[in-house]
Amino acid sequence: MDLQISGKTAVVSGSTAGIGFAIACELAREGVRVVINGRRQDSVDAALARLRSLVGGAAVSGVAADLSDAAGCQRLFDACPQADILVNNLGIFDPSPFASIPDSEWQRFFDTNVMSGVRLARHYLSAMKAARWGRVVFISSESGINTPGEMVHYGMTKSAQLAVSRGLAQSCAGTGVTVNAVLPGPTRSEGVADFFGKLAAESGIGLDAMERRFFAEGRPSSIIKRMIGPAEVAALVAYVCSARAAATTGAALRVDGGIVSTIC
Ligand code: NAD
């Protein structure tokens, strides 16, 4: 399927690794000029080299900026003032008992996972509306619906993204700009693989056994009973960013392996 977005410009936040990197690759394969982002110049440079080796002829550039605050977002805007496609992928997670999450962590999660997307959308939307074409995608999570007891603060940010995404879509009525949220389930990104590796080592079991235990005890409603690949999430995101998805807006689209058991 030709997604009809060749030549468009996309910004993907937090994309030197994991789901964001997979989205950047998928969009680059479609001929999109992709701007990737991470906090450090060395990780941005390494990701650019990896992306160019995976996607021949990719038109990619990178901006090193910590998007958890306004100054970092401004660095991105200075380097890349306009975009046709914005993927708010940046997100951090950290399982912690509710009683031991201090105010500062609640604030850090909100700033990183919610305000980064708010600031980026606020900046990039006006030119999209003027061009009467644009795509904004928030990478939320099944945790935005099934708030996890082991990281309530993370779940809060993922629910907040759903509210922001839906409200923004309504604010773009009739403009040709679509705004959607994509909700992945447990996905084997670098961040999650590291976390599972640590848990497996602490429990004295292998990684495969750890993942089987996670689906048996932590996410028993998963229908696919396995981790999702970043490329599986990226395929849906690329479609949502495409010209073909012009009638899909204000939606919360799941790529969660069936974990959320409600029909809609
Ligand atoms: P990851 O930890 O593997 O990668 C995160 C990326 O963000 C890296 O490129 C890192 O350098 C960058 N980053 C981190 N902090 C940053 C900051 N302050 N400024 C700029 N860049 C920063 O993440 P992932 O697992 O691929 O998750 C990506 C998104 O998908 C997140 O929003 C996450 O909540 C969501 N999600 C992930 C899963 C999962 O199981 N992996 C499930 C559901 C939703």
Present as ligands are:
nicotinamide-adenine-dinucleotide
Total helical elements = 8
The CA-CA distance between the termini, in Å, is 26 Å
Strand order of the largest sheet: 3-2-1-4-5-6-7
Helix content estimate: 40-55%
Uncertain ranges = none
CATH superfamily of the largest domain: NAD(P)-binding Rossmann-like Domain
The helix-strand sequence is: EHEHEHEHEHEHHHE
Label the structural class: alpha/beta
Number of domains: 2
Largest sheet: number of strands, sense, barrel closure: 7 strands, parallel
Shape: globular
CATH architecture of the largest domain: 3-Layer(aba) Sandwich
Rg from Cα = 18 Å
What does this molecule look like?
This protein has 8 helices and 7 strands. With 264 residues, the protein is an alpha/beta fold. The chain has 2 domains: 9-187 and 230-253, 3-Layer(aba) Sandwich (Rossmann fold), CATH 3.40.50.720; 188-227. Helix 1 crosses helix 8 and helix 6 packs across helix 7. The two termini are 26 Å apart. Bound molecules: nicotinamide-adenine-dinucleotide (NAD). Residues 14-20, 37-39, 43, 66-68, 89-93, 112, 139, 141, 184, 186-187, 189-192 line the site of nicotinamide-adenine-dinucleotide.
Summarize the entry for a quick read.
With 264 residues, the chain is α/β, with parallel strands linked by helices. It is 46% helix and 14% strand.
Which structural traits does this protein have?
2 domains, 264 residues, seven-stranded parallel β-sheet, single chain, alpha/beta, 8 helices, Rossmann fold, binds nicotinamide-adenine-dinucleotide
Sequence-ordered SSE layout with sheet pairings:
Blueprint: E1 9-12, H1 18-29, E2 33-38, H2 41-54, E3 60-64, H3 70-79, E4 85-88, H4 103-131, E5 134-139, H5 152-171, E6 177-184, H6 190-203, H7 207-218, H8 230-240, E7 252-255
Parallel strand pairs: 1-2, 1-4, 2-3, 4-5, 5-6, 6-7
The chain binds nicotinamide-adenine-dinucleotide.
